């Protein structure tokens, strides 16, 4: 795997993945939209061989999910599963505390991206995450200056 190749390198490297991939990596950082003032629910794990500082920031208030085949006009449910109770009413084992983006425009706003289609944005990492991680790599590669 790419991770196995990176582990032996001395140059700084970073791997990003979804939270459910935790068992395949040794994450050193979790980033989410609230850390950057974004209204998106987009937690992502990062593993790196450099020291990455912790960001202490509040979670989003009423975060919006950007995923699925299309925007959605109502609340969605996580993968907890659905079952029918005794009277045949649908019940969900775990409801999502957030709703999906209602429009592509809303998805673009909460992600901090103004140019992508739905199929692109639902797979994207917010540029604020990438910029922050890039700054950490630059910091690690910049030799200290003499006082």
Give structural notes.
Helix content is 22%, strand content 20%. It is of the alpha+beta class. Strands 1-3-2 form a 3-stranded antiparallel sheet, covered by helices on one side.
List the helices and strands and how they pair.
Blueprint: H1 2-7, E1 14-18, E2 29-31, E3 44-48, E4 64-65, E5 75-77, E6 82-84, E7 90-92, E8 95-100, H2 104-111, H3 118-121, H4 127-141
Instruction: Report how far apart the termini are.
Output: 42 Å
Helicity range: 10-25%
Strand portion, in percent? 15-25%
Give a count of the beta strands, DSSP E runs of length 2 or more: 8
Overall mean confidence score, pLDDT = 82
Taking pLDDT < 50 over at least 5 consecutive residues as the criterion, the unreliable ranges are 76-80
Number of helices: 4
Q: What is the approximate shape?
A: globular
SSE run: HEEEEEEEEHHH
Structural class: alpha+beta
Largest sheet: 3 strands, antiparallel
- Assembly state of the chains shown: single chain
Strand order of the largest sheet: 1-3-2
What does the radius of gyration come to? 19 Å
Task: Quickly list its features.
147 residues; three-stranded mixed β-sheet; globular; alpha+beta; 8 strands
Give a short summary of the structure:
The protein is of the alpha+beta class and 147 residues long.
């Amino acid at each position: 795997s790419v991770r196995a190749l990176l582990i032996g390198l001395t140059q700084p490297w970073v791997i990003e993945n979804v939270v459910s991939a935790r068992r395949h990596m040794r994450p050193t950082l979790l980033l989410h939209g609230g850390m950057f003032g974004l209204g998106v629910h987009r937690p992502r794990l990062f593993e790196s061989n450099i020291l990455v500082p912790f960001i202490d920031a509040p979670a989003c208030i009423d975060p919006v999910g950007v995923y699925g085949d299309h925007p959605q006009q109502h609340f969605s449910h996580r993968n907890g599963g659905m079952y029918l109770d005794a009277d045949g009413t649908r019940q969900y084992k775990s409801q999502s505390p957030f709703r999906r983006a209602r429009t592509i425009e809303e998805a673009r706003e909460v992600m901090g991206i103004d140019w992508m289609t739905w199929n692109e944005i639902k797979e994207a990492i917010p540029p604020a995450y990438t910029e922050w991680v890039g700054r950490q790599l630059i910091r690690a590669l910049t030799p200290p200056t003499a006082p």
